[in-house]
């Protein structure tokens, strides 16, 4: 997949279809995120009006994908997270030490065990152990 080069920097620029292929985010979603996160995603336009994404924009799209698809945040929730954290902090959070996830699992297991010992069933309370994916 050949990418255009900017004349002044020699850095690659990707078309929207190339970014779709790289990230798995659909082109309509990329357009929506471009407008929703205008201050965060800097997209270059050609003289013909076509979008071009540099490597930094592609990496930011991956971060948005993590926040929205994997963490289940709304666009507004993702925007608020981005406002609270600088990009470096966000990258550290997303690539966080897996011990945090393990700790979360341990707490969940302890709470479920306490429920079972007290005679309550998570199913009767309307919740249970997460299945690993969101039902949409």
By CATH, the architecture of the largest domain is named: Orthogonal Bundle
Helix content: 40-55%
Strand order of the largest sheet: 1-2-4-3
Tally of alpha and pi helices: 6
Write a brief structural summary.
By secondary structure, the protein is of the alpha+beta class. It has two domains: 4-94, Multidrug-efflux Transporter Regulator, Chain: A, Domain 2 (Orthogonal Bundle); 96-125.
Fold topology:
Blueprint: E1 4-5, E2 12-14, H1 16-23, H2 27-36, E3 44-45, E4 51-54, H3 55-70, H4 75-84, H5 87-94, H6 98-117
Antiparallel strand pairs: 1-2, 2-4, 3-4
Overall description:
- The chain has 136 residues and is α+β, with helices and mostly antiparallel strands.
- The chain folds into 2 domains: 4-94, Multidrug-efflux Transporter Regulator, Chain: A, Domain 2; 96-125.
- 53% of the residues lie in helices and 8% in strands.
- It has helices at residues 16-23, 27-36, 55-70, 75-84, 87-94, 98-117, and strands at residues 4-5, 12-14, 44-45, 51-54.
- A 4-stranded antiparallel beta sheet has the order 1-2-4-3.
- The relative contact order is 0.09.
């Amino acid at each position: 997949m050949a990418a255009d080069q900017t004349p002044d920097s020699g850095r690659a620029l990707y078309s929207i279809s190339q970014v779709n292929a790289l990230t798995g985010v659909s082109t309509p979603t990329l357009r929506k995120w471009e407008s929703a996160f205008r201050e965060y995603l800097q997209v270059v336009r050609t003289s013909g009006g076509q979008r071009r994404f540099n490597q930094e924009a592609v990496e930011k799209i991956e971060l948005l994908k993590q926040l929205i698809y994997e963490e289940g945040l709304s666009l507004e929730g993702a925007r608020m997270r981005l406002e609270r954290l600088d990009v470096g902090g966000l990258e550290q959070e997303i690539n966080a030490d897996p011990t945090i996830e393990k700790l979360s699992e341990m707490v969940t297991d302890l709470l479920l065990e306490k429920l079972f010992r007290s005679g309550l069933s998570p199913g009767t309370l309307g919740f249970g152990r997460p299945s690993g994916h969101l039902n949409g």
